[in-house]
Amino acid sequence: MAKKLIGVDLGGTTIKFAILTENGEIQQKWSLRTNILDEGSHIVPDIVDSINHHLDLYKMSRDQFVGIGMGTPGTIDRDKGTVIGAYNLNWKTTQHVKDDIEKGTGMKFAVDNDANVAALGELWKGAGNEGDDVAFITLGTGVGGGLISNGKLIHGLGAGGEVGHMIVKPNGYLCTCGNHGCLEQYASATGIVHIAQDKAEEYEGDSRLKAMIDNGDEITAKIVFDLAKENDYLANVVVDEVCMYLGLACANLSDALNPEYLVIGGGVSAAGDFLLKRVNANFKKFAFPTVKTSTQLKLAELGNDAGVIGAASLARQFMD
Amino acid sequence: MAKKLIGVDLGGTTIKFAILTENGEIQQKWSLRTNILDEGSHIVPDIVDSINHHLDLYKMSRDQFVGIGMGTPGTIDRDKGTVIGAYNLNWKTTQHVKDDIEKGTGMKFAVDNDANVAALGELWKGAGNEGDDVAFITLGTGVGGGLISNGKLIHGLGAGGEVGHMIVKPNGYLCTCGNHGCLEQYASATGIVHIAQDKAEEYEGDSRLKAMIDNGDEITAKIVFDLAKENDYLANVVVDEVCMYLGLACANLSDALNPEYLVIGGGVSAAGDFLLKRVNANFKKFAFPTVKTSTQLKLAELGNDAGVIGAASLARQFMD
């Protein structure tokens, strides 16, 4: 009988769970608030309890499952199944998530980086179209990446896919990583607000965005894009700059990988075709001729489900 | 009995051949001038004749060989074994190299891009140390790349590894590809001379390099590096700029792939540790923290043999 997969998407505010068929159809979904108190020591026990509780609730037994996959922030040792340096989980020391979750649930467990897992989700059931060569860029609070070549994630020595830290402007904005001019500082939600604030200072003309900023109103990336769509001049200056750097990074990445698709996801990608078109115009300007005519930019399709679906796909390695 | 491999490195001026053991030891080497007359129509027959002639000479039979591998410029269809757009070979129309060489020699044949093949050579027997994740940048007349992830070349849709056309300076020097600011325009032998000429125009102080340029002497990348080693001020300004852009590209590439090694080869890399140290300083400045402490930059080790060795390695796919 066909077995099922469990996907866990561990984030700083919520933990999302899903039970999926082997074909990646979501059958059950639930979620939990992430309790990061006490150095995040409740997180793994909460995951174990929640899975066990839901299996009881649905009257399902362990042998109906292939295993559990999980996406998490932090630096991951995939073989050992450990995580370290996940600061928004308060995990400062090494966490033996694989050992603890396998012991607690009686199921096999695999773990990878959250951006990689979202990429696997889009690859399997979303915009990636099950391609062998697909690149994903996630524009959220930060900028993450998941790169697939010859059907496999590019991990390299572990940090492969750190596209948010490709330098798009040498000596540009200071990044949380300590370097200057990382893509993340220009294309993340926070980066877009930063650009807006800087441009508002220089700009003298009419603009609702400028008025809001001068008024001390809270600005978000969504507000910038919404105003740009309404032809606000300053908002369009900001969006142009964001899309220039994004197009540059997409081009440089695609010159290296020449993927079938370069998929743009994450909260900022909610700006939709408005964003995609402008990024694409810059991509066409910067990419190598053979690359710009072959690699196709597109928007992610799965939204918030990419994480649990991709996480579940990690467990497919345990299928007979 | 262990069989042998044939490697062919097809270039615009010479065709290099080698017979290798299955372990990649070169046993015989020879070469031929490339005859690009008549739209390059003599090239494939010359390769066939030369291989057949040498097998007769060495009294070897076809069944002693696994097959033939070849590296070539141009756009390659690896499955069909065709090449198109290899302008320095005068190949403007599709060349059915696989069909013709298999028919002419009676041996199996595989083909890939010259930069990829050189990367495979270094991976197998040189600086790549048979790693699963290694990136190669070749600094010659142009700048080429060969990227290996999870033990496989990254081809993507065919143009993967075009690192010479990653943009390091938006709106910079015009490149032969039609874009502006490609790495190739700053780190190839011709790019280095271009930078030297530009910097010489601005510079007013003492410099042997400036004197040579003002005098109309022919400048090469080697002269620039040699003068820089002798503390010529202007030459060092040029080398600093070259190494800044190279370090930036190495960092951006490594943030994506996080390879064990990033290997720098090609004629320009003859500048040795003098080059490597300065590129490395910039790499450390630009790369993501986890990447700069894990990915290691090194110089290529095989020199001109990288091509035939890597080409021969393509034929290993035919081993039983």
TrEMBL record, chains A, B:
The keyword Transferase applies. GO terms for biological process: glycolytic process. NCBIfam families: ROK_glcA_fam. Keywords: ATP-binding, Kinase, Nucleotide-binding, Transferase. GO terms for molecular function: ATP binding; glucokinase activity. Its EC number is 2.7.1.2. PANTHER family: BIFUNCTIONAL UDP-N-ACETYLGLUCOSAMINE 2-EPIMERASE_N-ACETYLMANNOSAMINE KINASE, ROK (REPRESSOR, ORF, KINASE) FAMILY. The keyword Chloroplast does not apply. Coiled coil: none annotated. This is Glucokinase. One of its GO terms (cellular component) is cytoplasm. Belongs to the ROK (NagC/XylR) family. Pfam families: ROK.
